[in-house]
Amino acid sequence: MQKVAISTDAAPAAIGPYSQAIKTGGLVFYSGQIPLDPKTAAIVAGGIVEQTRQVMANMLAMLRASDFDYDNIVKTTIYLTNLADFAVVNDIYGECFKGTPPARACVQVAALPKGAAIEIDWIAA
Question: What is the pLDDT of residues 37-96, one digit of tens each?
Fold first, then answer.
């Protein structure tokens, strides 16, 4: 098995011992993105709307680093610290998928890194 790391300065750098993404075979596995500003490495100001938009922007930056876009995503997992935010997140998330949306799971978690309200990881092909 060959693994190739994918990285870009257009998305937040890894904040631990992991790669931004790994390509193997015809799939790319992306590490979770939280709402970090790639320039400052700080959580963006605002609430769930701003945080979700930043996560989606970080996702697109990572996808572009792989020569992909949202339509290449086959599976996502959304982690929320408050499941009451689901409807807002769902609306913003849905704006990004023009074709067939990917398979998805959404779960509530007790906490996320740096106090984020949302994190999304995904697989693309």
Answer: 999 999 999 999 999 999 999 999 999 999 999 999 999 999 999 999 999 999 999 999
pLDDT of residue 121: 98
Catalytic residue flag (residue 106)? yes
State which residues form the domain around 111: 4-124
Q: Considering 10, 60, 106, 123, which one is annotated as catalytic?
A: 106
Domain count of the fold of the chain = 1
Residue 60 sits in a domain of what CATH number?
3.30.1330.40
Instruction: Please give the full DSSP string across 15-79, using - where no structure is assigned.
Output: SSSS-SEEEETTEEEEEEE-SB-TTT-SBPSSSHHHHHHHHHHHHHHHHHHTT--GGGEEEEEEE
Going by pLDDT thresholds of 50, 70 and 90, the confidence category of residue 15 is confident
